[in-house]
Amino acid sequence: MTKTISTSETEINALFQLQKTNLLQLASTTAKERIKKIKKIMDWVLANEERINASLYADSKKRPSEVKISEIMPIIAEAKYIMKHLGEWMRPEEVETPLRMMGTVSKIIHEPKGNCLIISPWNYPFNLTLKPLLQAVAAGNAVIIKPSEISVNASHLLSDMINELFDKNEVAVVEGDVEVSTILLGLPFNHIFFTGSPAIGKVVMQAASKYLASVTLELGGKSPTIIDETANIMQAAHAITAEKFLNNGQTCIAPDYVYIHRSKTKAFVEEVGRYLKKMYGEDASKAEDYCRIINRNHFNRVKGLIDEAIGKGAEIAVGGKTKADENYIEPTVITNVNDDMQIMQHEIFGPVLPVMEFDTHQEVISYINAREKPLALYIFSKKRQNIDYFTLNTSSGSVVVNETSIHYLQDYLPFGGVNNSGIGKSFGRFGFEEFSNKKGVVENKFSAFSLFHPPATNLKLKMLDFIIRWF
Hints:
Layout: H1 9-20, H2 23-27, H3 31-47, H4 49-60, H5 64-90, E1 93-95, E2 104-112, E3 115-119, H6 127-139, E4 142-146, H7 152-165, E5 171-173, H8 178-185, E6 191-195, H9 198-209, E7 214-218, E8 224-227, H10 233-244, E9 257-261, H11 265-280, H12 296-311, E10 315-318, E11 322-323, E12 328-329, E13 332-335, E14 352-358, H13 361-369, E15 376-380, H14 384-392, E16 398-401, E17 422-423, H15 428-434, E18 436-444, H16 458-470
Parallel strand pairs: 3-4, 3-6, 4-5, 6-7, 8-9, 8-15, 9-14, 13-14, 15-16
Antiparallel strand pairs: 1-2, 2-18, 7-17, 10-13, 11-12
Helix pairs in contact: 3-5, 3-6, 4-7, 5-6, 6-15, 10-11
């Protein structure tokens, strides 16, 4: 496959200017015109599913069933939802007129932010590139996409796709490494949408600050999973196991660690072990539905976290086998972990589930609140009082009760983190608004504001006092 455009600094700058000259035309497009573009993206994805499968298998041995669930379905669902509601979102929103503004009418209109940059990651390269693109196109923006150089085959296919569907003055892909990202971040974009780690998110935000560009940062962190003394252990074990080991644990909203009531630990670990065998058989390395760590560097990083934890007293309760030549790490559960271990300090982003124990609910709240705010919080409990206690006494991007990660499929909720786990919200209307400027418009029809122009007479002052007190 060939790249869509050259990644030289000169041509990147020229591309940016080309899109800038097209902003007014894009801003004037109708809902019908934008929906047509969104449908083109959706139809291309559906028609090229086999090519998508092949690219993802080449990058990380991701299987077609997993591609359908985690790549294809979210894109198609987002496209359909936007197409259904875009006309409504684009209509001017009339607002009330206070009495002191009598004689005027006001409304809110959504105008596109303009030149937008989407920097997407390698773990779900189609999903996490095309969903924000759908939102940006819905809002009427010009977009440059910088996909990850790590998922190289997927990035090449994304380039081919965008080149086929769009003129470069509207949407284009720039491939390359960190040098290319640095060039792009040096340009005066109006909005930057970044998905990745908090560390790189800080770099993006610092670069955006030079031009006071707005940002959406979809980050991550250590999303906790609480299992209390009332929880259905089979339900919890199955839900956590299925999501934690999806995409080999390389998911920003995956349960990062389990915090479980001491009375439930043994049953939980045993059930996870049983369910893993049901999902992947006796040897997960031979399972059709178990993909691989993206590359050797990430394999070494995750294995290093396991080895360091074991060296400090952690125990492997389930799994633990590795094959460096395949970037394979068996689905692994480790117990007896503590905060002295690196595995409890950093987002794991791999197929390893640490298990911690608690005795009191206050322990859980104190532990979670002493750390960075997570992207997601998962609670398994049968008791409403406990669910409310954990929900209302912690801060996180989202909360899911008695399941994991299903909030990603809820079109009517905002998706995003808080502080270290992200800035801004996306999905559906929230994504449309993230790529839009809410512009207030006030029109004077017959107001008498001119009565209050200088000079300030006693009558005018009395009228002002009356308005201030009673309106």
